[in-house]
Amino acid sequence: MAKPLIVSIPHSLGAAEARRRIETGFADLTAKLPGGGGDIQQSWDGDRMTFAALIAGQDIRGSLDVLADAIRIEVLLPGLLGMLAGKIGGKLKQEGQILLEDKRKG
Questions:
Q1: Which domain holds residue 83?
Q2: pLDDT per 10-residue tile (average), the chain, 106 residues
Q3: Quick check: is 32 in a domain?
Q4: DSSP line for the chain
């Protein structure tokens, strides 16, 4: 049974810029996760991206919602990956914060 992992990452970019950065950087972000770099399919419906990936032989599905002041990622981690939810969630948040960092700040 898949274990849900939910990560919220605040930002100050506005929804349009946050979405642009996610569109261009999502593949790089997922490649940095444990077992990352697998085949990733993604599609957008408004400000919601759904994705599916085959990572370390595991079928992973989830969604990412772009909000004006945060992004919310929900991932279903199957089997053994569910036991790594804390590590995966921490890395996802860390890399997501780098992707969404406001470069205008001094």
A1: 3-99
A2: 90 95 83 67 95 84 96 92 87 91 66
A3: yes
A4: --EEEEEEEE-SS-HHHHHHHHHHHHHHHHHTSTT---EEEEEEETTEEEEEEEETTEEEEEEEEE-SSEEEEEEEE-GGGGGGHHHHHHHHHHHHHHHT--TT--
